Amino acid sequence: MTNVAGVPALSPERDHPRPNPGRDRPDTSSLASFYEQALDSLELGDPELHELLGDELARQHETLALVASCSPVSPAALLAEGSVFANVTAEGYPGRRFHAGCVNVDKVEQLAVDRARRAFGARYANVQPHSASTANQVVMTALLRPGDPILGLDLDAGGHLSHGAPVNVSGKLFAAHGYGLSPDGLIDYDEVRAKALEHRPKLLIAGTTAYPRTLDWAAFREIADEVGAWLLADITHIAGLVVAGLHPSPMDHADVVTTCTHKQLYGPRGGLILLGRSAGTSLPDGRTLEQAMQSGIFPLMQGAPVVNSIAAKAYALGLAATPEFAGTMARVRSLAATLATELARRGVRIISGGTDNHIVVADVLSSFGVTGVGAERALEDCGILVNKNRIVGDTHPASVASGVRFGSNSMAARGLDDQDVAEVADLVCDILAATTADSPRLDALARAQARRRVAALCARRPIAGY
Ligand SMILES: *Cc1c(COP(=O)(O)O)cnc(C)c1O
């Protein structure tokens, strides 16, 4: 039976044996036949889309995804996301909905909230944000007034759009200021403090998209206190490491913590807002921070939540609390460290000299004479997916860049070991060494060889559960 986009094809006989007659067990075969029928109707009713889903599954099997901002979603989470919870409109919160029919919806949202609180050690969790960008917008619009100053890491230095970039609503609605990185690619807390004293932000944002090192939450807290700013920790990239205790948790340093559930939690596209000790903190208008976040999502920023996505979040957050997940995160970190070491051993300049998390940033321009975009294309042409990334002192715009960002989330999900990573480093260096600024594609023979090596590695190390 065909598999579509990682959703395991269910067979009533194999996966859900019918309950013994006379025993009081629910008949789960109806769920199985629902998905089976859905797959049939897609195949028969829309062969074009069916084929695209199949092609995408095959592409993901055959390529090595080293894009740091994603991870393969657990098949069971994909199934929950494709569930009939999509049919329910459920404005409000468990027990306080504006629509009827929410008996199971309430349970699934409460399950997700409880699991989020347990996984992150949070006092409060909101599982309704449609994305991490929305979560950040909620924090800003709930706590600030239009025109208030905010301070975050510059987009060019590895900050995120939603932290005040001029092209983003956060940069249009608020007076956004940025701090950069030191020449060795590290956050310079003295500069953060100096910028904070200069601009007196109402909100200080700590969070990164391309930063390979550990963040010092206590240092950010001290600076926020010095200028009387709220502190937002956006842990979107490192959420899994934080859950597993492999990166310090910001939970009791930051006033608010935001994350997505799809980058390092192997969950659906969506966001979370979390509060630690600060949940009961009073705002000038007398509300608590918890109340401000609750109404900041609904009705301030969003309407009805995506309940099917919340169901998938519940699955991912349950998984995140298991020893197996902690093991995966330990591999995420050790594989990234190995990749940095192996690339450096082959003469590649690694920004900041290594990594503490899942990210490795390489200066491909000085190492191979290829731009970031050239390297991205040459590697994709051979089945290795990365993204171009600006590096400290970059003279190229973001669309070209001098660096490349690697991430190890997918390598861990594929069960690669250190020897496999050494081979990945070999492949990357072989491909980039054969690439020149004038000719971003390898010659046909070298390309075919590289593709064969990537395909063999992918076949040997399939994505877990796919
Ligand atoms: C990716 C990212 C986001 C945005 O996440 P979406 O869910 O795609 O909106 C926000 N903050 C940081 C630090 C990110 O890396």
From TrEMBL:
> Which residues participate in (6S)-5,6,7,8-tetrahydrofolate binding?
L155, G159, H160, L161
Query: Which InterPro entries does its entry note?
Result: PyrdxlP-dep_Trfase, PyrdxlP-dep_Trfase_major, PyrdxlP-dep_Trfase_small, Ser_HO-MeTrfase, Ser_HO-MeTrfase-like, SHMT-like_dom
Q: What is its main location?
A: cytoplasm
Q: What is its EC number?
A: 2.1.2.1
Please indicate if the UniProt record lists ATP-binding as a keyword. no
Note down the stretches annotated as region Disordered: 1-29
Q: Please give the catalytic activity noted in the UniProt record.
A: (6R)-5,10-methylene-5,6,7,8-tetrahydrofolate + glycine + H2O = (6S)-5,6,7,8-tetrahydrofolate + L-serine
Every Serine hydroxymethyltransferase-like domain range: 44-427
N6-(pyridoxal phosphate)lysine carried by residues: K263
Q: Where is this site: Plays an important role in substrate specificity?
A: H262
Per its UniProt record, the required cofactor names are:
pyridoxal 5'-phosphate
Q: How does it assemble?
A: Homodimer.
The family line of this record is: Belongs to the SHMT family.
Q: What protein name does the entry list?
A: Serine hydroxymethyltransferase
| Originating species | Amycolatopsis ultiminotia
Which gene specifies this protein's sequence? glyA
